[in-house]
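Appendix C reproduces, verbatim, an entry submitted by the partner laboratory led by Prof. M.T., so that reviewers can inspect both the input and the predicted structure.
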Amino acid sequence: MSTHDRHAWRDAAVAAAQSAADFIAHEARTHHAIAWEAKSATDFVSHVDLGAEERIRDILHARIPGIRIVGEELSNDADPEAGLVAIVDPLDGTTNFLHGFPNYGVSICIALDGVPQAAVMHDVARGGCCHATLGGGAFVDDSPLRVSAIDTPARALIGTGFPFKDVTRADEYLRMMRRLMPEVSGMRRAGSAALDLSDVARGRFDAFWELWLNPWDLAAGVLLVREAGGRVTDLEGNDARLVGGTIVASNGVLHDWFLDILNGRAL
């Protein structure tokens, strides 16, 4: 796999994310009038999600012939680790968007046989397009990205995403939060895991965890964090995969401590 290919894939993903972001930003002006469709009691979709994903699909198919799309709305049962795929969340933070809460974005990861090659996270509401290529570093617009240098837990700001669809692991989350609360400077639950991971890459969060994410929630963020100098694993410390599941991301310096406290080993 050549650097040229990765850069071409990144450029295609940036163009696709920009098209989707422009559409979302236009629709955000009238978000109060947008009709919601319930996928479940607490999970929603609108024509904005679908329209954004269609724009992404059309651009990627035109610029990367033969690529498969693994996305939340159009093909959420496809294998994210088989061949050349684009793993897409056209509007991560849909509930935020529908309420006018400014934390939502467009996430695209181009992966080959389960290895992220290029990634884009477009922060529609707050601004900034984060992008990365494997071995080529991470950037926000034209500026290099670097994880934070915080090495003291008491100064760390931690992101998370407690469950809202399936609350069967809520008690496990609460136990983790209780262990973290006296150790860190604060915790945030902003409602977009893809953006939370990009915020680790941008040094806004020092660490982030969630007990279950789908491939389109985490794929772009995995590459962004790693290329910005951070670390991304599962709860056992194994390198994160693109199939979804538990995710633990950090600036790297805090990672072992973070794993210990999440697993109850640091007390």
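The helical segments are 3-28, 47-63, 94-99, 170-180, 193-201, 215-227, 255-262. Additional entries are available on request from the coordinating office.
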